[in-house]
Design a protein that fits this description.
With about 180 residues, the protein is an all-alpha fold. It has eight helices and no strands. It is globular and about 45 Å long. The chain starts with a helix and ends in a 12-residue tail after the last helix.
């Protein structure tokens, strides 16, 4: 009886864990950091994880039912992961809420900018937003155009993936082409 009542939670956790694992793996591809000069720092990794979370959310936006629930669990997992990382960096209990609030604002600001550029089909605006967020101190970052091309390709690849497959825990991001 209990399995029937609570067994679905375990299956849903398996699905969301599988999806989150794929999102994190895509964000941690070495080519981003070695070839495209994304800073391999906590903030650089946050930026890439945020970008891939955005791509997932952009794919499932407007969907209801189970997909909406999966998206919410993944968003919760993302922020729990960010909080855990802050604590691992030595941020104390008093500092975590303030930093989480700032990182949440950063995340949602970026998703707005990225979505706007994608929906307008404006690769230059997307590259500018990526450069502004990922390499804010660089006068120029030539790899931002390559990353923008990757984001556009990933958005198209994800749009072509079946929602049933995603709801079953499978999501695939395109390859990252080295220099």
């Amino acid at each position: 009886m209990f399995q029937r009542l609570f067994g679905g939670r375990d299956r849903n956790r398996t699905i969301t864990d599988a999806l989150y694992t794929e999102i994190v793996a895509a964000a941690r591809r070495p080519e981003f950091y070695s070839d495209w000069e994304v800073p391999d720092t906590p903030l650089g990794r946050f930026e890439m994880l945020s970008l891939h979370m955005f791509l997932f959310q952009h794919r499932v936006r407007g969907e209801g039912g189970a997909m909406r629930e999966i998206a919410q669990v993944l968003t919760d997992d993302f922020f729990a992961d960010v909080e855990h990382s802050l604590r691992e960096l030595g941020i104390g209990d008093m500092g975590v809420p303030k930093r989480m609030k700032k990182l949440a604002r950063m995340f949602y600001g970026r998703t707005t900018a990225y979505a706007d550029a994608l929906e307008r089909g404006d690769a230059d605006a997307l590259a500018a937003a990526l450069a502004r967020n990922i390499k804010p101190d660089a006068a120029e970052w030539p790899q931002s155009a390559r990353l923008a091309s990757y984001v556009i390709a990933a958005d198209k690849a994800l749009a072509g993936q079946d929602l049933d497959g995603i709801a079953a825990g499978t999501i695939r991001f395109p390859a990252v082409l080295a220099n």
